[in-house]
Amino acid sequence: MLGHLGFSYVGLIYLLMLWIPNIIWSKNKPIDYDSSHENKILLVFERVGQVCCTCSILIFKDFNITAFSPWSFWLIASFLLMIVYEISWIRYFINDHTEANFYRSFWGIPVPGASLPVIAFLLLGIYGKVVWLIASAIIIGIGHIGIHVQHLKAIKQV
C-alpha cells in the first residue's frame, strides 16, 4: 500500500473543480437559503466524507494519468461528470439565485450539485482502485446528497 502513496495532480484538479464554484457560491448563496434545519447525522456524514475525500484524493498517486487501458474509461466517465458539474454551476450563476434554481435537476440528474461530484469521486476511486476514496465517496454521498434531497423536499412542500 505504501507504494501507492504520492501526490495526485488529478486529485488536485478535481478538488479545484469542486472548491472554486463552492467559494463563488458562498458569496452568491440562494436568497432563500436556510441551513439551520439540516439533519445533524447527515451533516456528520458530509463532514467526515469531505475530510476523507480530500485526503485520499490527494495522497494516492493511483489517480494520475497512466497509459491508456480499459480502466481509463472510469477516469474519462468521472471527468465528464465533473465537466457536467461545472456546467450545472454556470447554469446556477447565470440564473436567479434561489433554492429552487440551486436544487433543480440538470439534464435529468437530480440534485446535481451533490450527486455529480459524489459519483465522479466514486468513479475516480474505481479508476485508481483506491478503496479509501470509494468508501469516502459513499460516506460523503450519504450526507451531502441526503442534505440536498432534504432541501429539495422542503422547497416542494412550500
Brief overview, please?
By secondary structure, the chain is mainly α. 70% of the residues lie in helices and 0% in strands. The longest helix has 27 residues, at 131-157.
Describe the overall structure.
The termini are far apart. The protein has 158 residues and is mainly α. The chain contains six helices and no strands. The model has no long low-confidence stretch (mean pLDDT 93). The longest helix is centred in the last third of the chain and has 27 residues, at 131-157. Keywords: Membrane, Transmembrane, Transmembrane helix. The chain crosses the membrane at residues 6-25, 72-94, 106-124, 130-149.
Structural class: mainly alpha
Q: Count helical runs.
A: 6
Shape: globular
Largest beta-sheet details: none
Counted up, domains total 1
Taking pLDDT < 50 over at least 5 consecutive residues as the criterion, the unreliable ranges are none
Strand content: under 5%
- Write the H/E string, N to C: HHHHHH
Helicity level, as a percent range? 55-70%
